[in-house]
Amino acid sequence: MSIRQAMLAILEQGPMYGYQLRAEFEQRTGETWPLNIGQVYTTLTRLERDGMVEVVESAAEDGSDRTHVSYRATESGRSEVSEWFATPVPRTQPPRDELAIKLAIAVTLPGVDVATIIQRQRSATMTSLQDYTRLKRTGRAANPEAPEDLAWSLVLDSLVFDAEAEVRWLDHCEARLRRAAADRPAASAHATPTATPETSDGVAR
Amino acid sequence: MSIRQAMLAILEQGPMYGYQLRAEFEQRTGETWPLNIGQVYTTLTRLERDGMVEVVESAAEDGSDRTHVSYRATESGRSEVSEWFATPVPRTQPPRDELAIKLAIAVTLPGVDVATIIQRQRSATMTSLQDYTRLKRTGRAANPEAPEDLAWSLVLDSLVFDAEAEVRWLDHCEARLRRAAADRPAASAHATPTATPETSDGVAR
DNA sequence: CGACACATGTAACACGTTACATGATTTG
DNA sequence: CAAATCATGTAACGTGTTACATGTGTCG
């Protein structure tokens, strides 16, 4: 649902055609979320159907006489954009987190080696983190003053913050599982139920 | 794509029918990611088509003579699950982050009050954080020893880590924007173009 | 009995990806 | 000129949500 609004928002800069829209989007987000060109056209069609944009056949501005199928945001479109900016992204129904789902299920199944899953995941994520920092050094020399480069840089930071949070969470999970295992040591290998005393957890909460 | 694997993984516990699968899933993830019952059936159909599960008409175990349409994981299904657990969730194409996209575009558009967007978002996210901690206190009395409750608790922690990372990122963005504004002070309020020396145009790019 | 939860589906739609078709323009 | 890139689409498929239809079991 965010592509639609993003495209509409970019149209605030003026009428554009499909390819241009994709270029503008990717310039701001880097190679992070490549935007499928097919989807650009289908989304534009739906936006037009919903009265958010209208077609403006425009000559290419580069002098050639080629015309493109450009789109311009309508009044409705512009108001949808400002509402998008004015409303915080809700956390009521966060997108499903595959890693969280995976671990949540893993800890409930017998015979699944959760510790290994965690270690592999952390190692993969830390590799990504290194890639991100490498990207930040290499990054788009250009001029860091330009808003598009600032945008891309912020997106990159967002990925870093996210990956760091994931690593922290993995450490946290590891610790909690270790404590849980310490409380009832037999449960791992040969499945001895050990009758769990009272409620004396130690798992906190 | 994660629901499919999650359902398949849960079937490792033994044959189940639609409603049961949903209940097992939601018990592990709390009310975080409610699983649509319609999707359960369509996903089961596709899993069967792909040879991952097979139907086992089973009598309900609670004594009643009612039979349910239960599914059991096949050999292929089981191997897909173990591969799922063995492979880290890749960060190569992370799911699109609506907030990051929104801010990335916002900073490149003239006349958008990014500072306000950030403040509103942070305030909304911190409210969610409070809800999470309240949930952690209230949480599912039951017994925290039970693996399902541990799972749900880890998921909740994941939400917290995520929200905290978001707040940190918002602070980070705010700081960077303040620095950028300090470097070229005129750009904010009354849209004074200040003629940006060399490349002219003001629209940049 | 009537309301409600359980249980199994189907249809319609939105969104997203991959792949293909078809031209025009640019460039080695 | 041939190949690559730009540009605009369409078709097929997977996934996800919402809504509807239909029937069974339970409980006040």
Task: Report on the architecture of this protein.
The structure is a homodimer of 205-residue chains. The two termini of chain A are 36 Å apart. Residues 187-205 of chain A have low confidence and may be disordered. With 205 residues, chain A is mainly alpha-helical. Chain A has helices spanning 2-10, 18-29, 37-49, 75-86, 98-106, 114-138, 147-183; strands at residues 16-17, 53-59, 67-73. Chain A is elongated and about 75 Å long. Chain A has a 3-stranded antiparallel β-sheet. In chain A, helix 1 packs across helix 4. Chain A has 2 domains: 2-86, Orthogonal Bundle (Arc Repressor Mutant, subunit A), CATH 1.10.10.10; 98-187. The structure holds a DNA duplex (28 and 28 nucleotides).
